[in-house]
Amino acid sequence: MGIESSCDESAVALVQGDGRVLAQRIHTQLAEHAPFGGVVPELASRAHIRTLAPLLASLLREVGGWSQVDAIAATQGPGLPGALLVGFQFGKTLAWARGLPFAGVDHLQGHLLAPFVWQGEAAPADRPVFPYIALLVSGGHTALYRVEDALSVTLLGQTRDDAAGEAFDKAGKMLGLPYPGGPVIDRLAPQGVAARVPLPRPMQGRRAQLDFSFSGLKTALWRWREAQGETLSDARIADACAAFQDAVVGALVQQAVAACQQEALPRLVLTGGVAANRQLRQAMGHACRRAGIGLHLTPAVFCTDNAAMIAYAGALRL
Ligand code: KG4
Ligand code: ZN
Is the pTM of this model over 0.85? Predict the structure, then answer.
């Protein structure tokens, strides 16, 4: 059983040792945080306290009770300290009360192993094969890793400032869009024309370094927004979404392909909340085909925060 509470998703899941998800429950706290334009840590902790036990009760009803549970894993970090504390103590207490083994799981390792989690009757034929390069793009992290096997991972490069998801969310805020901006920009971008909003291309021509930076792009969008006057038409907002998404996706694709080439490892896994982005999935697909790189896309439901990836990582650890 996995428990996730590092940010604004409360989640529990029951997963087999081979990655098959038997059941899962996720409560997204969007409604709690939306009025503040971002996650309020104390509200997140309180929402985890309210929701984890009912989610667990509902999960246990579906799977047939505690006899189905062999061990418990909970996210240990990184994340919001108060939010982590709720899920971690919840998991430890349950393990102690039921006499079950317990594992604390690194949230990023969970994201890196999310491509192995699956639903349905039979495991998908295209599960990733070790070793591979992983691009982890979430609200808190943007990094490239060499993943040798489930437990040995080397960091190749990461963002110097904002994470890609954080940049999406801040861009959304500047454009007056609801929180979180990522999925909204994903939805609006196809209606806009990227070329109508001139924005810089982060990391262009700097393939030797495998890092990322989104602060210059963010500032450029802010300047453009300031120059537009009081109100923005829907069409201008869509243009800005298209341009911003294009620039972020371009940087992510360029650096991921460069990492595969530098490491001479033609296998790439895309994971983390931003990996749900449709343009990113499509553009990475084209670039990998051109470069002869095998691409594995984590199913969108397991890209954003979930407890199934935590359960699977915990099972491997134990
Ligand atoms: O992995 P995740 O659920 O939580 C963290 O560990 O951070 O990622 C959340 C981030 C948010 O910044 C959200 O805006 C972004 O992922 N995100 C997206 C999309 N769906 C979620 N960004 C762009 N396009 C999407 N479709
Ligand atoms: Zn995450």
Answer: yes
